[in-house]
Request: fold
Amino acid sequence: MTVPLSEEQRDALQELMNISMGQAANALARLINAKITLSIPKIVLVSAGEFQRIFQSTEHWFTRQSFVGLVKGEVLTLLAKDGTNTIGKLLDYQIPMDEVSQEELLLELANILAGACLNVFSAQLGLNTKLSMPTMFSSQMRQAESYRWISTLLLEVEFQLEATPFDSRVVICLEGQSVDTLISRLNQLLED
Amino acid sequence: MAIPVTIADDSMLSRKTVRKALPPGWDIELTEACNGREALAAVNAGKADVLFLDLQMPELDGFQVLRELHEHHVKTVVIVISADIQPEAQKLVAELGAFRFLRKPLQPEQLAQTLAELGLI
Reply:
């Protein structure tokens, strides 16, 4: 389902996400000395059930982090299982990685990408969010019914490491009331 | 005489941000372009002695615009304003003859300083 946003609001939201994604990619690119390909940000409204479907992917590891501030929600980071070794190698991990090293690597990547995405996004709108540290997440841990909300706004960006199977998606999930706050902040920015 | 200046960016918000950051009193004639093709058309029509250029754009992207200008030895002063700030993008842009690389979100003071450094204001 598409969010009822005006063309101007959608444009602004996408551009703010572009900028956030750019800074996140830059942080990773400098760390591993490689080039990251950026996607066009996606903005969608989903129900709790549809949201649950994200976790059906067997090709990704998942981490989650929650944030509070003027808006509340969580940030999910999907990391391609296939590319874990590629990144590990670039960061001097011993391949094959043991479970502990692998988890450390995944959490570190999530921290860099999701951290920059949310912080830069939030700073541009003065949303003053604080993000928790990432934890590994498995879809079996939660059922759709356990979500407190009926629908959520997803802001999604994708990073690909050029010429490798590694890709990562960062999804910022906002709950109902926070969507209203976001839109009102967006309108302020547009009226300036 | 007013300097012909073009802002090329597919985002309305970003075009507005650049527009608002232009130094007050700078005597220019402003054109806006929504993609690389429009940016080149503006250059060819003599509307861009100075070109503020985004990199990620539909039709032609900023790199392609730079390549085209570079190949034809066009004298436009290009200032790239980009969300993609990776070292590789900055390096390529410099090789393709852009004068400056500014990162988004654009800071108005930085734009003014850049224009001053380039002797444009």
